[in-house]
Amino acid sequence: MTQAKKMPRRTTLAALTAFAIAGMGLATASHAVYNIWTGEYSISKKELETAIAPQFPRKLRYMEIFEVTLSNPRLGMDPDKNRLTTVVDAQIANPLLLARPVNAALTMSSGFKYDAATRSLRLDSPKVENVDSQDLPPQYGQQLSALGNAAADKLLRDYAVYTFTPEQLQMNGKRFEPGKITVEKDAVKVEIKEQ
């Protein structure tokens, strides 16, 4: 009688384990990890860094007179504001107005949104949080912030950092769609809910 009771538990445990392994197999191919207990996909900070890396280094023109080179992105997670931060090195050059290029560090932040048409997780509402430069006096901070906001908008607005496969959004004949997006210390969690 004890064995009869244990058998269904083992079968259930085996089925759950097989389902979890299958979910991890999907996740490995797609890089996001699915947690069957919370119903969330987790995209790690490292995966986000890999997704954003192709955007840099990047040369931009600002107001048709400044050439801006952005490089060396460093990602951070801001759970309190539910935003991703990106610190980049900026070099601003204009041979007519500046004796030498100006170096600065721009700290930009972005939220996240889901685009159903492309099944992609995209950056949303990028903005400059801080501009740090030893090369310019503080009174030029406003111009550097404007330049940084233009760069953030051009590089990060609606940039796809992850695309879900159709298989990731279907299980047992049911269709799912990403819901709440939460920034944590080392990952972004995307809730999956039934349509």
Placed side by side, the strands forming the largest sheet appear as 3-4-5-6-7-8
The main sheet comes to:
6 strands, antiparallel
Structural class: alpha+beta
Radius of gyration using CA atoms only: 22 Å
Please provide a written account of the structure:
This protein has helices at 2-30, 45-52, 141-156, and strands at residues 33-35, 40-44, 58-62, 66-78, 83-93, 102-115, 120-132, 160-163, 170-171, 174-183, 187-194. It is an alpha+beta fold and 195 residues long. The chain folds into 2 domains: 2-45 and 163-194; 52-156, Uncharacterised protein PF07273 family, DUF1439 (Bactericidal permeability-increasing protein, domain 1, Super Roll), CATH 3.15.10.40. β6 (102-115) and β7 form a beta hairpin.
Question: Can I get a quick summary?
Answer:
This protein is α+β, with helices and mostly antiparallel strands and 195 residues long.
